[in-house]
Amino acid sequence: MTSQFNVESLIDHVQSVRRNTLGDLLLRTSERFPTKLALVFKSQRLTYEELNVLVNRTAHGLLSVGIKKGDFVTVMSRNSLDFVVLNFALARIGSIMVPINYMLTKDEISYIIEHARIHAVFASKEFTAIMDQSLVRHEVEKKVIIGQFDECSPEQWISINTIRKGQSADLPEIQIEDDDVAQVLYTSGTESRPKGVMLSHKSLISEYVSSMIDGKMSAEDIVIHALPLYHSAQLHVFLGPSVYLGSTGIILEFPSPETILQTIEEEGASLLFCPPTVWIALLRHADFDKRDLSTLKKCYYGAAIMPMEILKELKNRLPGASLWNFYGQTEVAPLATALQPEDQLRKLGSAGLPTLNVQTRIVSDQDEEVPRGQLGEIVHRTPHAMKGYLHDAEKTAEAFRGGWFHTGDLGIMDEDGYLTIVDRKKDMINTGGVNVSSREVEEVIYEMEGVSEVAVISIPDSYWIEAVTAIVIPKAHTEIQKDEVIEFCKQRLSSFKVPKYVEFTNELPKNPSGKVLKRTLRTDYTNLSGK
After folding, report:
1. Distance in angstroms (rounded) separating the CA atoms of residues 492 and 499
2. Other C-beta atoms within 10 Å of 219: how many?
3. Fold identical between 204-424 and 428-524?
4. pTM of this prediction?
5. Are 339 and 324 in contact (CB under 8 A)?
6. What topology is assigned to 428-524 in CATH?
7. Domain spans in the chain, listed from the N-terminal domain onward
8. What whole-number distance in Å separates Cα of residue 274 and Cα of residue 260?
9. How does 267-288 read in b/e, with b if 16+ C-beta sit within 10 Å?
10. Which terminus of the chain is less hemmed in, N or C, by CB atoms within 10 Å?
11. Is residue 244 classed exposed, middle or buried when 0-12, 13-18 and 19+ CB atoms within 10 A define those classes?
């Protein structure tokens, strides 16, 4: 006797059984550890069961106001409980989350909103005004205010508490594929306009596994989430894996050194990630030697190059802690390589080995693998990799040429396979752990009437690690002051993109084809900051 069945229904059932999305991670953890403390944010403490219910109610609330699968939804907020809840609630209904850097100007925000064709916006109250200003040329279906605020919402904004009130605590029944796009994260890259990096559920979960294994993370960790969650490092190397494992997370609004040190002591925190600038600020804070930091066992750095003297100081002043260096970029979700604790001094300055789910090569300009010890571009093959750049097939094809993802970073791999980052192929500046496009800053300075030529580079700096620096050739018979250049940029750029140093010159070094030799400039001006 032949059983009758509907083929499409069978495929759906099989997919439901095999599905592995961001929303599924939290569901499984809540069933494994329902009463375990999941998140702490200010006075709020949620178990995994409570967090799962809040995510479900929020997801049903989103559906009730017309937000659906495939819609692009932006979130602009400092670190908060609602940011984390939306991260999973949007994933559960198949909407695509687009986190926005809250330090951007209204024009920069407007570009992202228009480019991503945003359907709905979520913002904490302090950012509703700039979000309204950014929406002048683009209409959205819904504007939702999140976080803790009084009940008087700005005009045309509704409260997230209102839309989830009375909603079902059950899991929404939405068919989602593992390789559907879950999030689009915008990165400035090296062009004057940011690019939208499309990360699927599969990309992110593959990266979470690499983070957990190579970072030796566990369910017993008590993790501080202090760096901005709009950035892929805190959101996807630490928050996502901690929820996957069932760790306890402490969310801080700001990476304030005083608050971080206090939280380590009061909550018994065991795991902390910071870029070098924040580690330096912690070491220099008066409370560092006053607080009990003995519970801190796992320390991670990345997003910028760690000065070797600071690394040595960290090891000396936190003798009970292990250190990891994580390297990568948003396009690989973002982890690619890791330097383990036992290699910190043995391979000083290295970015380590490829992580569990990553294959790495160094290639020439002709995309041929170069011998060990030779300089070339860093390329990867990995399920972490993005699906492509949103609405930009040309840049996607360039990034994936030859069947490898091209990072644009220059590096050397030693005989043991350890990677050292030498330079950024396209002159991106990483200042304080945030990427800045040198070309974008140059284009702004070129708008000044008295400027003939300009080259923007990074120079070593004791605080910023890499400081944005403008080398300017004034027009003949024109006088420009350094402060004028800085003030001009302040009016047109986010604060972190504004040059920290400005120098004037009569000539920029160039190659025979006329291209400015920025490597020469970095050498010539390396001591400008007095480091």
Report:
1. 12
2. 14
3. no
4. 0.85
5. yes
6. GMP Synthetase; Chain A, domain 3 (3.30.300)
7. 48-178, 204-424, 428-524
8. 10
9. bebbbbbbbbbbbbbbeebebe
10. N
11. buried
Alpha helices in 65-170 (DSSP H): 81-93, 106-116, 128-134, 160-164
Please check whether residue 222 is in contact with residue 247, taking contact to mean a CB–CB distance below 8 angstroms: yes
Amino acid occupying residue 293 = L
Residue 516, SS3 per DSSP: strand
pLDDT, one tens digit for every residue, the chain (531 residues): 445 568 888 888 888 899 999 999 999 999 999 999 999 999 999 999 999 999 999 999 999 999 999 999 999 999 999 999 999 999 999 999 999 999 898 998 999 999 999 999 999 999 999 999 999 999 999 999 999 766 667 889 999 999 999 999 999 999 999 999 999 999 864 345 789 999 999 999 999 999 999 999 999 999 999 999 999 999 999 999 999 999 999 999 999 999 999 999 999 999 999 988 889 889 989 999 999 999 999 999 987 667 778 898 999 999 999 999 999 999 999 999 999 999 999 998 899 999 999 999 999 989 999 999 998 999 999 999 999 999 999 999 999 999 999 998 888 999 999 999 876 666 778 898 887 878 788 889 988 999 988 999 999 998 898 999 999 999 888 999 999 999 999 999 999 999 999 999 999 887 544 567 888 899 999 988 875
Amino acid at 359: Q
Q: Are 484 and 447 in contact (CB under 8 A)?
A: no
Q: For residue 50, count other CB atoms closer than 10 A to its CB.
A: 17
CB-based contact 335:213 (threshold 8 Å): no
**97 alpha carbon, distance to own chain's centre:** 13
- Please state whether beta strands 158-159 and 335-339 pair in parallel, antiparallel, or not at all (unpaired): unpaired
Domain 48-178 has CATH 3.40.50.980: yes
Is there a contact between 94 and 69 (Cβ–Cβ < 8 Å)? yes
Q: Is the CATH number of domain 204-424 3.40.50.300?
A: no
DSSP-based three-state secondary structure for 309:
helix
Cβ pair 154, 145 in contact under 8 A: yes
Q: For every residue of 87-104, which 3-state class applies, written as one string?
A: HHHHHHHCCEEEECCCCC
Tokens of 265: 């002591």
3-state secondary structure of 410: strand
Which helix (H) or strand (E) segment holds residue 325: the answer is strand 322-328
Closest CA to 99 of 123, 75, 79: 75
